[in-house]
Specification:
Helices cover 44% and strands 18% of the residues. With 273 residues, it is of the alpha/beta class. The chain folds into two domains: 106 residues, Response regulator (Rossmann fold), CATH 3.40.50; 138 residues, Response regulator (Rossmann fold, 3-Layer(aba) Sandwich), CATH 3.40.50. The strands form two sheets. Strands 2-1-3-4-5 form a five-stranded parallel beta sheet, with helices on both faces. Strand 4, helix 4 and strand 5 form a beta-alpha-beta unit.
């Protein structure tokens, strides 16, 4: 049985085959499209479990294809990992707004890194659909089996369910009790109700965005002990995050293990405060 179905949209046949071979050896079923139009068509007909997407493609750019995929109901929630050498801030910003789960720079990653990112995403989706609880399915004070003795929850905030679930499940596997919110306003309610030790929030969200949420937390004297991590695909500078009072800034161009390490460090600080 295949580990999952992945669509690679990449016009360079050598790169496409390199990553396709790596994923097939890992048990994935893989299809490849050589341009944006073919990629969009295949995504709609195959409905893969995840898409690896280049930005600069013939016929239809990766960003344009992604925008169309997000408008179509059948493909709107498919997780997308961008794999591109384009690190232009405007491009990364638009990709972030369109809800990519990660933005990986080709020249800085190996096939194994891409496979691990996909595995994190895949594991998160599978676990969230399976035995581990979601915030809606189990109260935050109820621990998952084998969880560490963390009394306060961690809150993950992201409007894109696939990315939120990926981060939630990674933290649950580390033993944390995890809440999830799809936006800043819902997060603010949960923060006041459950007083999480750490808030992990995406920067771009409708309504109350990640930086505004951080400012609101830090302005409330009763919440000053709450640690805040903001993450992005590179569309916000670390200086902006620091000015908002955030305790850590994480780029989703890096391995998810770095985010997990940051949560562990800040959680320990919160427990001592």
């Amino acid at each position: 049985m295949a580990a999952g179905h992945v669509l690679i949209i990449e016009d360079d046949s050598r790169i496409a085959e390199l990553y396709a071979s790596k994923l097939r050896r890992g048990g994935y079923e893989v299809d490849v499209a050589r341009d944006g139009v073919s990629g969009f068509d295949l995504a709609g007909s195959l409905l893969p479990d995840a898409i690896i997407l280049d930005i600069h493609l013939p016929r239809l750019s990766g960003l344009a294809a992604l925008a169309v995929l997000r408008r179509e109901e059948a493909t709107s929630s498919i997780p997308v990992i961008v794999l591109s050498n384009d690190d232009t801030p405007a491009v990364m910003e638009e990709a972030g707004r369109l809800g990519v789960s990660a933005y990986l720079i080709k020249s800085m990653v190996l096939p194994q890194d891409v496979a691990e990112t996909l595995s994190d995403l895949w594991h998160g989706s599978a676990e969230m659909a399976g035995s581990l609880r979601s915030a809606a399915g189990r109260p935050p004070h109820e621990k998952a089996p084998g969880a560490a003795d963390h009394s306060a929850p961690v809150l993950v905030v992201d409007e894109h369910a696939a990315t939120r679930q990926m981060v939630q499940t990674a933290l649950e596997l580390d033993g944390y009790q995890v809440l999830g919110a799809g936006g800043g306003d819902a997060a603010w309610t949960l923060i006041n109700d459950y007083r999480p030790a750490v808030v992990v929030t995406h920067v771009w969200m409708p309504g109350l965005d990640g930086l505004e949420l951080c400012r609101k937390i830090k302005a409330d004297n009763t919440l000053r002990q709450v640690k805040v991590i903001v993450y992005t695909v590179g569309i916000t500078s670390e200086d902006e995050a620091k000015r908002a009072g955030c305790d850590h800034f994480f780029l989703m161009t890096s391995a998810l293990s770095g985010l997990r390490d940051s949560v562990g460090h800040l959680y320990a600080l919160a427990e001592r405060s």
